[in-house]
Each structure stands twice: as structure tokens, then as C-alpha cells.
């Protein structure tokens, strides 16, 4: 059992490391940032309800760099917003891997990034994540 828990812990840590390369902080409202993820190079998806302005939006990339972003579109019904950034600014990391045969499989992994928690920061400030191995969610 201890080996299985260690293997699951290592798999979650690897998934967080991989996901963290694609998680950004979105600055589109006063005082608070929200999280977003690269959908594809140059396109970031975030929660529509956190976008409170259409101009002067910036994004903090995983490496800690802050870049301007443009609102490309919103859908309040699905609570999604798409932001565009210069494609040459940052290339997102690989987003998927195949699980090892027989390895436990997570049903979901959600990661967020606060402003100033770029990849160059200590691990204590790495992206905050929650896993969903079943119907509930556990904070990691």
C-alpha cells in the first residue's frame, strides 16, 4: 500500500509540474488576479466572471513575465473567456501524457496561479492545485 501511495503522490507531483507550465495569472479586475490556462499558443482560457474590464488586461506567465492580453471573446453561459497574447511571447508546455499501464488515473486536476508565483519562485509558491479522484475534490 505504501508503494501505491508513493506512486500516486509522484504521479500527482508530475502532473502538477506539467500543468504548471500552462497556468497563468490573469489581471482583468481590480485588486485580484484569476487563473487561466493555455488552450493553444497565443490563446488563454479563463473564467468569464473574473474578467471585469476589456482593456488594460495583463497576464503573468509561468516564468513570471507579465505581458499584455486582449479579450478575444466571452461566453457568460459557460463562464468562459478567451484572451489573446502575442504568440512569440511564450510557448506553452506539452499538455498531455499517457498514464503508465496500471497506474492510478485522476479524473481531474485543477491548477491556479496567483500573481508573482512564476516558475522561478520556490516550490512553496508553485501553482495551487486540487485533484478530483472521484466526485469530491481534495486540496493538495
SSE topology:
Layout: H1 2-20, E1 23-27, E2 34-40, E3 43-47, E4 57-60, E5 66-75, E6 80-84, E7 108-112, E8 128-132, E9 138-139
Antiparallel strand pairs: 1-2, 1-4, 2-3, 3-6, 4-5, 5-6, 7-8, 8-9
Describe, in plain words, how this protein is organized in 3D.
With 140 residues, the chain is mostly beta strands. The protein has a single domain (2-91, 105-139), classed as Trypsin-like serine proteases (Thrombin, subunit H). 14% of the residues lie in helices and 34% in strands. The protein contains 1 helix and 9 strands. The strands form 2 sheets. It has a 6-stranded antiparallel β-barrel with strand order 1-2-3-6-5-4. It has a 3-stranded antiparallel β-sheet with strand order 7-8-9, covered by helices on one side. The chain is elongated, with a radius of gyration of 16 Å. It starts with a helix and ends with a strand.
Amino acid at each position: 500500500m505504501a508503494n501505491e501511495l508513493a506512486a500516486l503522490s509522484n504521479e500527482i507531483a508530475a502532473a502538477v509540474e506539467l500543468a504548471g507550465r500552462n497556468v497563468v495569472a490573469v489581471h482583468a479586475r481590480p485588486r485580484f488576479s484569476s487563473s487561466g490556462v493555455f488552450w493553444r499558443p497565443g490563446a488563454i482560457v479563463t473564467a468569464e466572471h473574473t474578467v471585469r474590464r476589456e482593456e488594460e488586461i495583463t497576464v503573468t506567465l509561468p516564468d513570471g513575465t507579465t505581458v499584455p492580453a486582449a479579450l478575444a471573446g466571452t461566453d457568460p453561459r459557460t463562464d468562459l473567456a478567451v484572451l489573446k497574447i502575442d504568440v512569440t511571447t511564450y510557448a506553452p508546455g506539452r499538455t498531455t501524457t499517457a498514464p503508465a499501464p496500471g497506474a492510478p488515473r485522476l479524473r481531474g486536476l485543477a491548477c491556479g496561479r496567483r500573481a508573482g508565483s512564476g516558475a522561478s519562485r520556490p516550490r512553496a509558491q508553485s501553482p495551487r492545485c486540487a485533484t478530483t479522484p472521484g466526485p469530491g475534490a481534495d486540496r493538495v
